[in-house]
């Protein structure tokens, strides 16, 4: 069994309130969940309206499949025009960990 996680540190564009922040963050989370069947949540900077950290986790029996899945999730978030991807932190846990 392999477990992979991603942490996306995002700067949100033209956002001036927490309500506007939710309208940007929720669709990203929903698309990741719907398209890739991964676990996703906003995990940091919840009280700041122009910054957020989104955490993602996935489990697979195949390391290659999991790596490909994490790559596709990263590309999806990076391609969103309403956010600037500041950094991505990737962790991969294999059977030997």
Topology:
Elements (H helix, E strand, L loop, with lengths): L1 E11 L5 H19 L2 E6 L6 E10 L2 H16 L4 E11 L4
Antiparallel strand pairs: 1-3, 1-4, 2-3
Task: List its salient traits.
97 residues; alpha+beta; Alpha-Beta Plaits; 4 strands; 36% helix
* Count of discrete domains: 1
Taking the sheet with the most strands, its summary is: 4 strands, antiparallel
Q: Give the proportion of residues in helices.
A: 25-40%
Q: Beta-strand level of the residues, as a percent range?
A: 35-45%
Straight-line N-to-C gap: 10 Å
Shape call = elongated
Oligomerization: single chain
Q: What's the tally of helices?
A: 2
Average pLDDT rating: 94
- Structural class determined from secondary elements: alpha+beta
- Low-confidence residue ranges: none
CATH homology superfamily = TT1725-like
Radius of gyration: 14 Å
Count of DSSP E strands?
A: 4
- What is the class in the CATH system? Alpha Beta
CATH topology: Alpha-Beta Plaits
Q: Major sheet: order of its strands?
A: 2-3-1-4
Order of helix and strand elements from N to C terminus: EHEEHE
CATH architecture label: 2-Layer Sandwich
Can you characterise this structure?
The longest helix is centred in the first third of the chain and has 19 residues, at 18-36. With 97 residues, the protein is α+β, with helices and mostly antiparallel strands. It has helices at 18-36, 63-78; strands spanning 2-12, 39-44, 51-60, 83-93. The chain is 36% helix and 39% strand. The chain is elongated. The chain has one domain (2-93): Alpha-Beta Plaits (2-Layer Sandwich), CATH 3.30.70. It starts with a strand and ends with a strand.
């Amino acid at each position: 069994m392999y477990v992979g996680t991603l942490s996306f540190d995002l700067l949100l564009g033209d956002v001036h309130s927490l309500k506007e922040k939710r309208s940007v963050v929720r669709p990203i989370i929903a698309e990741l969940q719907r398209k890739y069947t991964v676990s996703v949540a906003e995990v940091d900077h919840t009280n700041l309206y122009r910054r957020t950290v989104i955490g993602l986790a996935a489990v697979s029996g195949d390391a290659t499949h999991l790596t490909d899945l994490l790559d596709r999730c990263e590309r999806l978030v990076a391609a969103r025009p309403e956010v600037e991807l500041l950094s991505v932190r990737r962790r991969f846990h294999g059977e030997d960990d």
